[in-house]
Amino acid sequence: MSIDGYVDSPSDERLLLSNAADFDRVDEVRAGCDAILVGAGTVRVDNPRLLIRDETRRAARIARGLPPDPVKVTVTGTCGLDPAARFFTLGDADKLVYCATPALPSAEERLGKVATVVDAGDPVDLSRVITDLAGRGVGRLMVEGGGTIHTGFLTAGLADELQLVVAPFFVGDSRAPRFVGDGCFPWGPERRANLTEVRQIGDVVLLRYALSERYRD
Questions:
Q1: Cα separations in angstroms, 156 against 102, 126, 163
Q2: Measured in whole angstroms, how far is the alpha carbon of residue 70 from the centre of its chain?
């Protein structure tokens, strides 16, 4: 995020906050995960591939008996997703779409050939999502965004660790999307997150926070 807490600009042109070294770090983190989750808005706006870029890391996963890329996961209330999005068309990893109950029929019709559609409740229940993922063998889930998804996981107390990279500039426009939105966050003064690492990566800074007891030193 920017110094003032934004993750993009208000324009249609995507704002790149990080640098090549940190993008490589993210690739390394992805390689150590069983699944990567993004919100439906991220799929629509950013059209991410969610694939591991480094071939050595892909080979290492294969050597461990894992698929070359983590499972792709998205969460949607309305299922307004394009089956031609790169989320669905690139890579051989399983694709899971957790959908609000009322949208299940349209989700099956639209996405049933390119993904597995799962009932996530009405409204979508993120606790239900991670319980189902655990039942599918997902032990380590990387939640990449966007802001609505970050807010949901953090306010529900479902995140074990937060990896936050701060870019050295301001966006300064309240129309831009923020890292998180409004919510009743459990990490207030009475329950401070535990800072476990500070690392400079070129012109950005990585802050790692433990949010659950099992991630605390």
A1: 23, 8, 17
A2: 12
Q: Which of 64, 30, 38, 61 is nearest to 140 (CA)?
A: 30
Q: What is the pTM of this model?
A: 0.93
Distance CA 212, CA 151 (A): 16
Q: What mean pLDDT do residues 153-168 have?
A: 95
Rounded CA gap, 55 and 155, in Å? Answer: 36
Phi, psi of 73 (to 5 degrees): -135, 135
User: Following CA atoms 31, 212, 176, 28 in sequence, which dihedral angle do they give, to the nearest 10 degrees?
Assistant: -10
* pLDDT, tens digit (0-9, with 9 covering 90-100), for 197-210: 999 999 999 999 99
What pLDDT sits at residue 185? 79
Mean pLDDT of 20-34: 97
CATH number of this structure's domain 20-215, picked from the four choices 3.30.2000.30, 3.30.70.100, 3.40.430.10, 3.30.450.40: 3.40.430.10
